[in-house]
């Protein structure tokens, strides 16, 4: 767990004065949920431009810290160092070298270069990585008057060269490990759902913290835990560290300040009604331990239970499920038997809304009902649909009587 000392208002004013440099930033995301990232950023007060898998915005050191700590559905926050067209290695080298890397990278920076190239003349990714690395080394050697090699013994500054249709984008990753790694999941099942995808599934529902929430195939508890973090307004990155915290140019104490602010935003005035169930008792024990580490164990009831045994008199609840499907643990026939069981079990719950993620496009045939809405998402590399069955609100039923 990350610990920090409270900062005085005067100290933070000094910090804020030092962090006035504005950067072009990008929050990366899995395909299909970039709009959610954009919505999160707008809710935080930023102007955003959303493209496939990316949400672009601007900010300073404080904003980098704030978005890393608060964004639930993004993968990483990156600084865009440069963007240009290059069709030759000489052009790639010279334009990369022209960027003032020394404004961010100190003389001892460790800066590995990763890369990708799509539909571009410069299609050899290893060669592109090597050219970019060499150009930055030359730039820093001149800037720091070094004739010998750079030590690369300091903090980590992960750099990426991404080329799409001959347009080169050079970025530095401020997050370090991906933002989906909240730090609470010590153990997981055979086909785990990433934390930011679980958060996206919750955020795409009509759930509010005053409604019941149920995950019938909770596995290691990721979906119920993310729902609890959302319901209690606990920042997902509150208890982890980030690459930028160790950067020498970065404003000292700014991450601590954002964490201090985030702790004050936690809702301590509510008790959530969240149930996570699974047929596997060993997974329930893992889910309980993960919830304890996430700090929300008192907000979730975990129960070993077969899907067909769920009964409730509660109204207006939300069911979110990521059941095993044909390419996740079970055969196609076994998965489809579960879908049929879901349809039969949930049919009486007319005021409940059900949201089910699966790669089986014939899901509705087995569930026994047409979805109100479907949304295409990617669970890792697997193309899935998020089938949504909206319930009839209890108030509407009463009005019609």
Biggest beta sheet summary: 7 strands, mixed
Tell me roughly what share of residues is in helical segments.
25-40%
The computed structural class is: alpha/beta
pLDDT < 50 stretches: 1-8, 10-18, 396-401
The CATH superfamily label of the largest domain reads Vaccinia Virus protein VP39
Q: Quickly count the domains.
A: 2
* Order of helical and strand elements: HEHEEHEHEHEEHEHHEHEEHEHEEH
Rg: 24 Å
**Strand runs, count:** 14
- CATH topology of the largest domain, by name, is Rossmann fold
N-to-C CA distance: 53 Å
- As laid out across the biggest beta sheet, the strand order is 2-3-1-4-7-6-5
Task: Provide the residue-averaged pLDDT.
Answer: 92
The CATH class of the largest domain turns out to be Alpha Beta
Q: How many DSSP helices? A: 12
Strand content: 15-25%
GO molecular function, one term: RNA binding
Pfam families: RlmL_1st, THUMP, UPF0020
Domain THUMP: 63-174
Protein name: THUMP domain-containing protein
């Amino acid at each position: 767990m990350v610990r920090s000392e409270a900062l005085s208002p005067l100290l933070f004013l000094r910090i804020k004065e030092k962090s006035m440099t504005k950067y072009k930033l990008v929050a990366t995301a899995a395909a299909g949920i970039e709009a959610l990232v954009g919505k999160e950023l707008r809710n935080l007060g930023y102007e955003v431009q959303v493209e496939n898998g990316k949400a672009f915005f601007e900010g300073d050191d404080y904003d980098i810290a704030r978005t890393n700590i608060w964004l639930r559905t993004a993968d990483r926050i990156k600084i865009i160092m440069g963007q240009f067209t290059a069709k030759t290695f000489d052009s790639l080298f010279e334009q990369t070298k022209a960027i003032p890397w020394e404004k961010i990278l100190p003389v001892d920076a460790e800066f590995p270069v990763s890369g990708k190239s799509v539909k571009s003349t410069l299609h050899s990714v290893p060669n592109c990585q090597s050219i970019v690395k060499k150009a930055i080394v030359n730039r820093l050697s001149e800037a720091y008057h070094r004739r010998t090699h750079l030590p690369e013994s300091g903090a980590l500054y992960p750099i990426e060269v991404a080329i799409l249709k001959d347009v080169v984008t050079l970025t530095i990753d401020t997050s370090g490990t991906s933002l989906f790694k909240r730090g609470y999941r010590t153990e997981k099942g055979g086909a785990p759902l990433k934390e930011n995808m679980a958060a996206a599934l919750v955020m795409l529902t009509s759930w509010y913290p005053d409604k019941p929430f149920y995950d019938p195939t909770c596995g290691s508890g990721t979906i119920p835990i993310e729902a609890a973090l959302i319901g209690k307004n606990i920042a997902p990155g509150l208890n982890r560290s980030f690459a930028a915290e160790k950067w020498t140019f970065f404003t000292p104490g700014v991450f601590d300040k954002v964490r201090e602010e985030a702790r004050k935003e936690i809702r301590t005035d509510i008790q959530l009604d969240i149930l996570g169930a699974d047929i596997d008792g060993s997974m329930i024990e893992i889910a309980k331990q993960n919830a304890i580490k996430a700090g929300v164990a008192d907000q979730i009831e975990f129960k070993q239970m077969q899907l067909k045994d769920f009964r409730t008199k509660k109204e207006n609840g939300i069911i979110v499920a990521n059941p095993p499907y044909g390419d996740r643990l079970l055969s196609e026939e076994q998965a489809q038997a579960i879908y049929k069981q879901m349809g039969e079990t949930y049919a009486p719950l007319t005021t409940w809304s059900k949201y089910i993620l699966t790669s089986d496009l014939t899901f509705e045939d087995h569930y026994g009902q047409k979805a109100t809405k479907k949304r295409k998402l990617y669970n890792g590399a697997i193309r899935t649909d998020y089938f949504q069955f909206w319930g009839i609100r209890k108030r509407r039923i009463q009005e019609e009587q």
